[in-house]
Known about the structure:
By secondary structure, this protein is mainly β. It contains one helix and ten strands. It has a seven-stranded mixed β-sheet with strand order 6-7-8-9-4-3-10. A hairpin with a 6-residue loop joins strand 7 and strand 8.
Amino acid sequence: MVPLEGGCLCGAVRYRVTAEPVDACYCHCRMCQKTSGAPVVAWGNVPIEGFAFTKGAPISHQSSPKGIRHFCGACGTRLAFRYAEGPTTVYINLATLDDPEAIKPDYHIWTASQLGWFETADNLPRYADDGPDTFP
C-alpha cells in the first residue's frame, strides 16, 4: 500500500506516507464539520515517523488543547491533524491522497455530533465519542 502521496488543491503543499496506516475513520465531530465545511471527514491514521511534508510548508492551527490541524495557506485544503502533546501518529485527510481509494475507513467516530440529515449506508462500527483507541 505504501508509499502514498498527497497534497492540497493548488499543489503548494505535498506530503508522503511511508508507513502502513494504523487505521482509518470517518469523523463526525463539530470541529471537523466546521473546519471542512462538510458533514464528515475521512481520516487515515499513520505512524508519525512514516509521514513527511515534501513540498511547501502547511499552516498549523491549534484548534483545541488536544489537537493541531495542518492546512495549505494558499488554498485552505485541510491536510492533516495530530495531537498537540506526544503524538505518535498523524491523521491524514484521505480525500487529499493522490489515490483517495488507497485507504478505506474502518469505523465512524463522534457520531453524537452527526448531522441528522446526513447518513452513510455502511455497516462499519460507530462510536459516539473518539472511538476504540486514542493515539497521542
